Amino acid sequence: LPLTLQVKNKAPAEVQITAEQLLREAKERELELLPPPPQQKITDVEELNDYKLRKRKTFEDNIRKNRTVISNWIKYAQWEESLKEIQRARSIYERALDVDYRNITLWLKYAEMEMKNRQVNHARNIWDRAITTLPRVNQFWYKYTYMEEMLGNVAGSRQVFERWMEWQPEEQAWHSYINFELRYKEVDRARSIYERYILFTLLVLVHPDVKNWIKYARFEEKHSYFAHARKVYERAVEFFGEEHMDEHLYVAFAKFEENQKEFERVRVIYKYALDRIPKQDAQNLFKNYTIFEKKFGDRRGIEDIIVSKRRFQYEEEVKANPHNYDAWFDYLRLVESDADAETVREVYERAIANVPPIQEKRHWKRYIYLWINYALYEELEAKASKRTRQVYQACLELLPHKKFTFAKMWLLYAQFEIRQKNLPLARRALGTSIGKCPKNKLFKGYIELELQLREFDRCRKLYEKFLEFAPENCTSWIKFAELETILGDIDRARAIYELAIGQPRLDMPEILWKSYIDFEIEQEEYEKTRNLYRQLLQRTQHVKVWISFAQFELSAGREERLPRCRQIYEEANKAMRSCEEKEERVMLLESWRSFEEEFGTDATKERIDKLMPEKIKKRRKLQAEDGSDAGWEEYYDYIFPEDTANQPNLKLLAMAKLWKKQQQESEAAAMDPDKDIDESQT
């Protein structure tokens, strides 16, 4: 017979352990930080297989704990993918899809894995399953069509778009399909898609939007199918009728007819709309109609009354004061909106002929914008590139470069030549500007241009010229060094920094030193960083430099960081004992105390507390500018322990203050004996 254990004491234990307590302790122990596992190097296949087995077991355990956490599945699959185990990664993704097939991220990661590994057919299969399972997720459709288009499978991409359109998606999807067809010059297909979309809006939407009709008409206009565009506008007007009239539709229709020079049609459209749309809803319509009439109305009736009147006013103003450039700007704005190109050029020529009489830059600041507007008009409105070049060149010849120049003019000219694909002329213009009148803005603009063109050798030469011109410019030194760092030439970057800190004059040396120190820290050259701090401390004993040095030692070293940091604070305290600015030394001691509170022992904390000064209030006499007395001023002073030891009179002064206070209290008690009696009775 088996032996049966008999429990002698069946009384309940004094301390009861509940299930809640067990769970809470387990949760708390999860938060305990475990030391990271040691790094190990895998040297043979058996160790690799053992490592894979352990990792897979860890991932499988995480999945088994909570199958619904999709991030665990994705991490598992990505790990398998990193080992080139594509079949295993597929298996994991398929298992994850069995758990949650509605997760969008899961499908995207799965398809991206296949595309990344050039498994095109597998990716197609996944996208097909995704859009079949979740057809309302637009992201799947966009990525599927994009993949097919990138593969050059235009027919396949079109087929995917057609499947998408069967689901009647939102507006952006239709426009994506249209833009796709336009990229391949399939105008007829794009037109048929617009027709289907318009039909979809008519049948499905309760209140169709006017902008879709306008986009369709502008599409036809853009491709020079003007008759088709007119039919679209007419269909839109007929569809909306008089009950749902929208001023934007009529404004767009009128502007289309205006571009076609059908001015009578424009006038009829505006009048038809203004007669039927309420005035409070037709402000924009009336404004555009007024502008149209100003442009194309009867010259005797409208232009003579409105435009000529305003032109006469401007003519009077510029005759009274030819150097009133604001009046010229208003006059030119009026002429540009109304007159032909020759008239506009004539007014511009008259305006720029009024050169400021004094060669001072403040008198030229408004005048130079006449030239800029003239050049922009020739380039953008008149489309005359030769005249634009002549305008820029004439302006640059007019400027007195020996006295002052306008960097924006040189840069605008160079940018114009770049837009004309004439790079040599742009470089020649910027080189001439640097030769005639070097300025920081010109150097920066030229360097920016060459950086965009990836001409790094030219950038180096320009930086060298720039630094010869302005060696005190710390920003230029820093940008030059950053360029060399980006290009991977660390030694050149370090040499540039060394040259920079050796300059006798610098505008912002603190920024330069900080950049150099950060550069060395980024390169993990800690010994060189320490040497830099020592060099900087030979030049300045500023408290922020000492604090920064100490914080660097705290963050740089591993084993010796605390002694090094404490040593820096010791050196700083000794160096700043002779400093006149006591607030800086207090700042240093405060930083030291915060360091000791975090990393120090009781002994070091007590030591730093003994070094802290005593804050006392003092008074000093003020004097006015004329030498007379201006009263007294209270201020706070700091007395350090070594100052107390060196000045024995401070203790005597403290005893004198205490004696004076006691005397005042005794005199007050003698002046009011009744108060003493009342206090004794109380």
TrEMBL record:
Assigned keywords, A-Z: mRNA processing, mRNA splicing, Nucleus, Phosphoprotein, Repeat, Spliceosome
Domain annotation Pre-mRNA-splicing factor Syf1/CRNKL1-like C-terminal HAT-repeats: ranges: 71-361
Name of the protein in question: Crooked neck-like protein 1
SMART domains: HAT
Subcellular location: Nucleus speckle
Region (Disordered): 662-682
Signal peptide: none
